[in-house]
Amino acid sequence: MKGVVVKRILLTLMIVLIPLGFVGTTATDAEAGLGLGVHYLNTLGDIKDHPDFDSSNWGLLAAYSFGPGLINFEVDVEWIPDYAAGKNMVEPSAYVFVGSFIYGGVGIGIGHINGDWQSDPFYALRAGVKLAFLDIFASYRFQKWSDVSADSDDLNSITFGAMFKF
Questions:
Q1: What pLDDT, in 10s, does the model give residues 55-84?
Q2: Among 105, 107, 156, which Cα is nearest to 128's?
Q3: In total, how many domains does the chain have?
């Protein structure tokens, strides 16, 4: 089981790092920045009816963004208090975006809850608007969570967030 999680983490790193080689920029050519913000999650999948699961939750988000202009990359870490049955979750993720003022992209991430990594990563579609130092976005996450004992393992969710970027 842990071997599968390690493979998924390595796959996530490859998805983020391989495109950097194709962009052809150095760290000095690329724009980079940090971000801090809040993230609201609303689970739409059938698991929202599970008694130990709160279908509506929020998290604190930290991000590092970098890229040469129209193609940007972002690495996030999110802390979600009281995610399931009173347990906190830490969720690293990585995104690739196209656009500057209005942008869209795809991402992948995985949660760490109760001392273990989730067995399944989430995949996300995200779109947003950058207004000076403020980044406002919405995303749709596709996720299964086979670790939970419920009638359904569907954790698909819609999320909304706002970050101040420095």
A1: 678 899 999 999 988 999 999 999 988 776
A2: 105
A3: 1
Q: What's the token pair of residue 156?
A: 């698909």
d(CA 21, CA 104) in angstroms, rounded, equals 21
Cβ distance 97 to 106 under 8 Å? no
Secondary structure (DSSP) of 26-90: -TTTSEEEEEEEEEEEEE-SGGGGSTTB-SEEEEEEEEEEEESSSEEEEEEEEEEEEEETTEEEE
Residue 154's domain spans which residues? 2-165
Rounded Cα–Cα distance for residues 130 and 163 (Å): 9
pLDDT of residue 4: 58
- Cα separation, 16 vs 57, whole angstroms: 27
